[in-house]
Amino acid sequence: MASVAASLPEQGQLVQVRSRQWVVNHVKPSTLPSLALKPTFDGPQHLLTLSSVEDDGLGEELQVIWEVEPAARIIEKVALPDPTGFDAPEKLDAFLDAVRWGAASTADLKNIQAPFRSGIEIEDYQLDPVVRAIQMPRVNLLIADDVGLGKTIEAGMVESELMIRHRARKILIVCPSALQIQWRDQMRDKFGLEFRIVDSSLMRELRRRRGIHVNPWSHFPRLITSIDFLKRERPLRLFRETLPAPGEPVYPRRYDLLIVDEAHNCAPSGRGKYATDSLRTQALRELAPHFEHKLFL
Question: What stretch(es) of the chain map to CATH 3.40.50.10810?
Fold first, then answer.
């Protein structure tokens, strides 16, 4: 049973903040002198970076000052259960198989996990992109299959495999506005990946819930947006705020995987004398260098 702990939580510990459960990713003490802080606290205050473990917010991050956060508490470790007997050999064998299949090694290029962790029927040709992707140190692929051959499935397997191998976490899918819901439903139903659509309604909701200074591009690790929304001045400005400032190092990159659907709509202009790139092309040119992996459909 969870109990209140007065001590400071450590990295990796489970805590309850704002009626939700989080894992502590980082603990940073304040650099201000004690006299500059509230006199009711002895010693420095601490900034905690938390990652949600709730089903409806998996991967969502939050930063809080632990000493001033109301009703924050540490969930104490639960003791291991007392052994009361032995499992059947068949059950142990199934457990060992599950551990073996789930332990995908980054160096093992022959063991592909994504097709077996998805709810889809796969054609042979759909395995080619994911096989190529895991052999590349930085994925940079163009999938140009005909309409109806399952480019969404191929992209989903690539991103799922990269996540299994811990090579991708922060993912952005850029697609036409009419396909946003389809992408979200396909990723959820066929790969078990929760994505959130960044649009004007989400920005209004986030501002109402978290304040006017919230940035929609940093509130969740897996996002979907339309290219016509992304190219606007305000969404593009907010995205720039998540990128390195001038003079800051660009490595490691801030984002892991960029997926662009209907990429021909963002193709650069020709070499004519009066040809100029569209706002779509300019937006992608600015954002693409900050992604470790890129996938164009």
Answer: 105-296
Q: How far apart are CA 191 and CA 113, in angstroms?
A: 12
pLDDT in tens, 248-276: 888 889 899 999 999 988 888 777 666 67
**Series of mean pLDDT values for 10-residue runs along the chain (297 residues):** 59 87 88 60 80 71 88 75 83 84 67 83 88 91 85 92 88 94 93 92 87 85 94 93 88 92 84 76 92 94
Q: How far apart are CA 292 and CA 24, in angstroms?
A: 25
Topology of the domain covering 105-296: Rossmann fold (3.40.50)
**CA quadruple 281, 180, 222, 225: dihedral sign:** positive
